[in-house]
Structure formats: structure tokens, C-alpha cells
Automatic annotation (TrEMBL), chain A:
Keyword Membrane applies: yes
Residue stretches of biased makeup (Basic and acidic residues): 154-170, 549-596
Region (Disordered): 138-170, 513-596
InterPro entries named in the record: YdbS-like_PH
Protein name: PH domain-containing protein
Domain of life: Archaea
Domain YdbS-like PH positions: 61-140, 256-340, 407-486
One Pfam family from the record: bPH_2
From TrEMBL, chain B:
Domain of life: Archaea
Record keywords, A-Z: Membrane, Transmembrane, Transmembrane helix
Sequence intervals crossing the membrane: 12-34, 46-68
UniProt name for this protein: PH domain-containing protein
Species for this entry: Natronoglomus mannanivorans
Coiled coil: none
Length: 596, 162
């Protein structure tokens, strides 16, 4: 498959802007006329730059090929140096579609494919047709989510379906979340966009004609009061902050406008943006950690945010900024409900750190204040820079409050299936880690913690968000409890993995029969999808034939009776399955074939 | 619990001396350059001497920490995980389940080679403690440990790491 033909002019345009300007400067320097520059030469250089750009983009378009095979997504690209890349579909973590205003007008979109490992986006398609982008997104996530599907029938059928309708089948999407007007308003007003301050600086310098003083109403300040300079400065700062705030609100509004989160099968699908449209998928099977963030102004209004982190990247990292997330802002109850629909975690009932942790924070703050004042004192005695070093002493009154708030906002829960860790007063984050996602467990005890017999436990996961944000760390818990939790985390990880493995084997053995029966695996949402979406397969005999030849045979087959038992427990035994006698035979047969 | 080979101790002490030497060089050199270049109201020799004192303190602290590090370092190959205890100021105890081991390296740097030691590095897909290194092993022990960990990682055959 090739890219959309419109990608040639679009890419050329964006490229010509860069190469053209480059040649513009080269032309100025190289023009024989000296300082003034020969208009003709400059023009010619610019044209050469543009033509070269177009030629390159045409060649790029000509040589770019992508293809979805049953197991891999192949991309061959490159004009000068060629690169053939095959990404196993199962390894794909996220598929994003991005469109800005111009691209929307042209009906093209950029597709980004992320896998775990490596900081960069693994595959970028610039640009394909809108419908094609959606089809790719759909097909890739179908492929990546069902590892045990038989591709022969189901895969083909779905492909043709997609080609014909070009859209998702109705009734399959389940709308999980749509941002409400009040939520968007609160979000826009209170979010500080890091880019806004830079933009505000530029805007203000334009508005003032590059002379910042023009914005300050000198007339008002002509009164010969002492400290006029200070007022002028304060005024300038005020204007700047206001401009930055307005811009930040506008940027946030346009970024999250029309935010929708839907669930398609076992994938989350999000869309957002007013001018620039973003859409992406988060495979539920690959969720590493859930993060509920309740920052200070939002928490007062009863709002919170939810981030779903995969190993590819958390949705926030796409634009190298951490302000975006799975749900930018919603009422607390909705956030909890949605988080539960992704990971059915139990009630939050966090254990608090022991009271001596609070003492520790108080001592820490006092220590920091003393240090500041000590430095201030030294500077005051030896230089004239600082005078009122003791002004900081006022802050000592705040110390108990600060220590208490820090302590009260920390906690952890060593639950049945999930590990919770909460921290932060200003930006309170609650991390929810399923045990089977834990990579390693780290116990840390600083010198100061040791004095108070406290320690911190981190449940490390492969979530790439942890590179930038916080890890799931339970701070300042009692030493004995910490060691207990560390042991327990490892044990539960092993237990859960074993359970998942057993269930996967079950799915593998019976997935011919389980078709559409909606196996009720209440406790562990994601694993049951392995065997689920194999609709269109009813002849269990044929599938069994296929499965028999599968290479990855279960290593330690369970005694057949156990499966028998578990299978009977499944609710919807509507299909006419082989009788249990036959079943037993079949399993036994499989066993013997394995042991051979 | 297994301990490291005692030969690693002088290596760590030597490294500490070299590193704090570099740090001290920068600090004292900076102080001297500062007092030469500008004329502040501070007694010049005081600044230089305090820089020297700082460098000496850093040197002593680092050497002591390097010396103590050996006595703290412990590791154990358990039934289902690798357990490591280390850290003088901040005590760190790491549990790495074998299921999560991606690959295992054994390394020998120039200094390690000169005293006949090796390091085993265990990689996981985790983001924080992405790799765990066990230094101060004899080359034989490093080989056997690597092989042991490799076997255990294969036996515990988990699902995909991510």
C-alpha cells in the first residue's frame, strides 16, 4: 500500500518552508552583489530549494510502501538509505491518528505506531487517507489484541468487512466517557500550559512593538510615589501572567475539545481536539498502571484526572508533555467508575504511614528552613545583599500544617489484586498497579528513615510514564510492614502469573468451543479476551486441527479433571459442545501428544 | 546470603579517591580562580582554605562509604527471585522475580580485569530499576551466576514482559 497522493504536496509544502528558507539565507550569503544581495540569485536559490524539496518528497512517496500481513506490519521506506521494518502486530502498544486543520481539509492523517522499548515512535505514516487511517488503527489493534485468534477465517472476514464499510460496525463501540462542558471549562481555566508562557512572551512583545515599556501605563504611575518602579514591574508581571493564562486556557480548550473515550472490544479509543484532531488506542491488555491524579484546584471542586499507562507511552507523552492523559478531567465519581471499568480494582482503603512519619516531615521542613536562614545569616553578616534573613522564621508556623498535609495525603494499599500508592498534596497521584505487571520490588531506606524505622516500597512496572512522572512508591511505612509488603508483592506476582498462565492454557485448549459464550472471568478482565473474539469459528473440529499443530504447547498440562471442573462452572453453555466424555478424551489425547 | 569478593573493596576505595580528587580539583581550582579574578570583600585565603576543607571532607566521606559498602552488599538467588541488599546511606533491597528477567550480562571493565573481578548485570523491562548489577564477583562465579539466572529465567517462563 502506498501513502495518500496528497501527502506529496503537503509534505513538500511543509518541507519547502524549511528548505526554501534555508536556501534563502544561502542565497543571501552567496549572492555576488555583496551586502545587499541579488534578488534574482536569492529567488533562484529559493526555487532550487523548493524544487529539490518537491523532488525528494515525490521520491519519498514513490518508495514508501506499507502492508499489514497476518502477523506483522511491514514498512519499506527511504530515498537515499532504504529501510525495511517489520513490527510484529502483537507487539504493538498504541496506534495514534493525528490531523491538524489543513490535513483535515485535505482529508489526510498521520498514523503513529508505538511499541514498547525505544523512546521514538516506531512507525510514522505521513500521510494516509482519513478512512485508511481509521482502518489501519482498527485492524492493527484487532491483530494486536487477539493473540490466540485463528487468522484464517476471522481475520479475513474482518478485513473484508472493513474494506466494504470503511468504518466501525455500529453497536460495537461503547462510549465510556465524554467530557462535559463544565469539566472542559474548569480544565481550561485552571490548567497551566507550559507552552503558554513562551507564547505570551511572543504575543506581548508583538503587541508592544518590541518595547515592553509601552504596555505599562506610565501616566497612571507618574505620581512621585516612592517605589514607582516596583509598581511598574508588578504591572508588567501582571499583564504577562494574564496573557499567559488566557492563552493557556485557549490552548487547553482546543486541545481537549470534544474529548471522547470509547471502548471497542478490548481497546480504549480516544479522540480529542478542536483544531488539531488526535485519536489513539490504548490496548487494555497492555495497561501497566492506572494513575488517578487529583491536583489542588481540581480536588477542591471534586474533579480528578485518569492516566492509563502502557509500556509504549502514556498518552500524555505523545507530544512530549505530561499534561494530557486518558481522561483530562472529570468528576471524582466518574473517574473512579471509569478506572474500575478498565481495571476492576477493589475499594480504596489506604493504610496511612505511621505518625512518626509526620514528625519526620516536620523535622525535615524545619531543617530546610534553618538551612535557608543560616545561609541568609551568613550572607547578611558578610555581604550587603541580604538583610532580613529572619523573615523566613514566619514560615515555621506553617511547618506543622505542611507536615500534616503531606502525611495525610500519603498512603498505600496492599490489596488482593492491586497495589495502591498515593502521594502528594499539591498534585495528589494514586497509582494502581496490578500485581502481574510488577517488574521488580525495591525497598529503600535513607539515613533519616532508618532513625525512625521507616522505609519506602516501590513497585516498578514497565510503564514508560514512570520515566517522567512518579513511580508507584509507598512512602514511609513501618520497616517490618515494608519487608512484609515487599515479600508479598513478589508472592502475589508469582501467584497471579501462574493463574494467568493456567487460564491462558485453558483458553488455548478450549477456545474452539468458547466462541461467543462470554466466558465470565470476573476477576481478570484482560486475560479472557485471549480466547474471546474468535467469532466466526464454530466448527470446533477444524480449529482443533489447527491448534494441534501449534508450536507453543503448554509445558505443564494440568490434570484434565481440573479443567473439566472449571469449564462446567462457566455460565453460558449454550453451544452444542462435545459431551464431557469426549472432552476428557480430547484433553487426554492432547496430553499424550505433548509428552511424546 | 552471599557476599561479594573482598577484592572489590580496594577497587571501590580507589574509585572513591579518584572521583573525589576530580571533585576537589574543580572546587579548589574554582576557588583560586575566583579569588584571583575578582575583588570581593571576603578574605581570599579563607575561601581557598574552605574549598580545600570541603574537598578533604568529601574525600573522607566517600572513602568511608566505599569501605562500608562492601560490608552492606549482599545478594541471594532465591527460589523465584533474585534478592539484592545494598547501599550505605540509603539502604536498598531489590527483589527481581526471574519471570521478569529480560537478559543477563556479565561484564569485565579494565579495573575489574586488573584485579580479576567481574560484574553480572540483570535487565528487566521495568522503568526505574531497569537493570540490577552485581559487582565484585570472581569471573567463575560471574559465569555460573549468569548461567544460573539464565536457566531460572527460562524455567519460570512467564508471559510477555509488557
Amino acid at each position: 500500500m502506498k501513502l495518500h497522493p496528497m501527502s506529496v504536496p503537503y509534505r513538500s509544502l511543509s518541507r519547502s518552508l524549511s528548505t526554501g528558507s534555508l536556501f534563502f539565507f544561502v542565497g543571501i550569503i552567496a549572492s555576488p552583489g555583496g551586502a545587499g544581495g541579488n534578488l534574482l540569485v536569492i529567488g533562484a536559490m529559493v526555487v532550487v530549494g523548493i524544487v529539490l524539496g518537491i523532488a525528494y518528497e515525490y521520491a519519498y512517496y514513490k518508495r514508501f510502501r506499507y502492508e499489514i500481513t497476518p502477523d506483522t506490519f511491514d514498512v519499506a521506506s527511504g530515498v537515499v538509505s532504504r529501510r525495511d521494518r517489520e513490527v510484529p502486530v502483537r507487539r504493538i502498544q498504541n496506534v495514534d491518528v493525528r490531523q491538524n486543520v489543513l490535513q483535515r481539509a485535505l482529508g489526510i492523517a498521520a498514523v503513529h505506531v508505538e511499541t514498547a522499548g525505544g523512546g521514538e515512535t516506531e512507525i510514522t505514516l505521513q500521510y494516509v487517507d482519513e478512512a485508511e487511517a481509521n482502518r489501519l488503527q482498527r485492524q492493527l489493534r484487532n491483530g494486536s489484541s487477539s493473540r490466540s485468534r485463528s487468522r484464517a477465517t476471522a481475520g479475513d472476514r474482518e478485513t473484508t468487512d472493513d474494506l466494504e464499510s470503511g468504518d466501525t460496525r455500529p453497536g460495537e463501540d461503547e462510549l465510556l466517557f465524554e467530557i462535559r462542558r463544565n469539566e472542559l471549562a474548569v480544565l481550561s481555566v485552571f490548567t497551566i500550559d507550559p507552552g503558554a508562557s513562551a507564547l505570551a512572551t511572543i504575543a506581548l512583545s508583538f503587541a508592544s512593538g518590541f518595547d515592553p515599556t509601552t504596555l505599562v501605563p506610565i501616566d497612571l504611575l507618574e505620581a512621585d510615589l516612592p517605589g514607582t518602579g516596583l509598581i511598574a514591574l508588578a504591572w508588567a508581571v501582571l499583564i504577562f501572567l494574564f496573557a499567559a493564562w488566557v492563552l493557556s486556557a485557549v490552548l487547553t480548550f482546543s486541545r481537549y475539545y470534544g474529548f471522547r473515550l470509547t471502548r471497542v472490544g478490548d481497546e480504549l479509543h480516544y479522540e480529542r481536539g478542536l483544531l488539531q484532531r488526535y485519536s489513539g488506542t490504548i490496548p487494555l491488555e497492555k495497561v501497566q498502571t492506572l494513575t488517578i491524579e487529583e491536583s489542588i484546584p481540581f480536588r477542591w471542586f471534586g474533579y480528578g484526572a485518569l492516566a492509563v499507562e502502557t509500556a509504549g507511552y502514556a498518552p500524555g507523552q505523545s507530544g512530549s508533555r505530561g499534561t494530557e492523559s486518558a481522561i483530562p478531567l472529570a468528576e471524582r465519581g466518574r473517574v473512579r467508575r471509569l478506572a474500575r471499568s478498565i481495571e476492576p480494582f477493589e475499594r480504596e482503603d489506604l493504610e496511612r504511614a505511621p505518625l512518626r512519619a509526620r514528625e519526620r516531615y516536620a523535622f525535615r521542613y524545619i531543617g530546610v528552613l534553618c538551612l535557608i536562614m543560616g545561609v541568609g545569616y551568613l550572607l547578611a553578616t558578610y555581604t550587603e545583599v541580604v538583610e532580613d534573613w529572619h523573615a523566613f522564621a514566619v514560615l515555621l508556623f506553617v511547618v506543622p500544617v505542611a507536615a500534616h498535609l503531606k502525611w495525610a495525603n500519603r498512603g498505600f494499599q496492599f490489596g488482593d489484586r492491586y497495589f495502591f500508592a498515593r502521594t502528594g498534596f499539591w498534585r495528589r497521584t494514586t497509582k494502581i498497579v496490578p500485581y502481574y505487571r510488577v517488574q521488580s520490588v525495591v525497598y529503600q531506606q535513607t539515613l533519616f528513615q532508618r532513625r525512625r524505622r521507616l522505609a519506602s516500597i516501590t513497585a516498578d512496572t514497565a510503564s514508560s510514564a514512570a520515566f517522567f512522572g512518579r513511580a508507584a512508591t509507598a512512602y514511609d511505612i513501618d520497616v517490618t510492614r515494608a519487608l512484609q509488603v515487599q515479600q508479598g508483592l513478589n508472592e502475589r506476582l508469582q501467584e497471579r502469573l501462574l493463574e494467568r498462565k493456567r487460564r491462558r492454557q485453558l483458553d488455548r485448549w478450549f477456545d474452539g468451543d468458547d466462541v461467543g459464550s462470554g466466558v465470565s472471568v470476573d476477576d481478570d478482565q484482560k486475560s479472557h479476551t485471549d480466547g474471546l473474539d474468535i467469532d466466526g469459528l464454530d466448527g470446533s473440529e477444524t480449529t482443533n486441527g489447527g491448534h494441534g499443530s501449534r508450536k507453543e504447547s503448554p509445558t505443564e498440562p494440568e490434570p484434565p479433571d481440573e479443567h473439566e471442573h472449571e469449564r462446567r462452572d462457566e455460565p453460558n453453555e449454550t453451544r452444542d459442545r462435545p459431551s464431557s466424555e469426549d472432552d476428557r478424551d480430547r484433553t487426554d489425547g492432547r496430553d499424550s501428544s505433548n509428552s511424546q | 546470603m552471599e557476599r561479594l569478593n573482598p577484592r572489590v573493596r580496594p577497587v571501590w576505595v580507589l574509585l572513591a579517591i579518584v572521583r573525589s580528587g576530580i571533585f576537589g580539583g574543580f572546587v579548589v581550582g574554582g576557588a583560586v580562580a575566583f579569588t584571583r579574578g575578582t575583588d570581593v570583600g571576603i578574605d581570599e585565603s579563607l575561601l581557598v582554605w574552605s574549598a580545600v576543607a570541603l574537598a578533604v571532607v568529601v574525600l573522607i566521606v566517600r572513602v568511608v562509604i566505599a569501605w562500608l559498602r562492601y560490608s552492606v552488599w549482599r545478594f541471594e538467588v532465591r527460589a523465584d527471585s533474585l534478592y539484592i541488599e545494598r547501599g550505605v546511606l540509603t539502604r536498598v533491597k531489590t527483589v527481581v522475580p526471574f519471570v521478569r528477567v529480560q537478559h543477563v550480562d556479565s561484564q569485565r571493565g579494565p579495573i575489574e580485569r586488573s584485579v580479576g573481578l567481574a560484574t553480572v548485570v540483570v535487565y528487566t523491562a521495568g522503568s526505574r530499576s531497569a537493570d540490577v548489577a552485581i559487582p565484585g564477583l570472581t569471573p567463575d562465579r560471574a559465569e555460573t551466576l549468569r548461567e544460573e539466572l539464565r536457566q531460572l529465567a527460562i524455567e519460570s517462563e512467564g508471559e510477555d514482559a509488557v
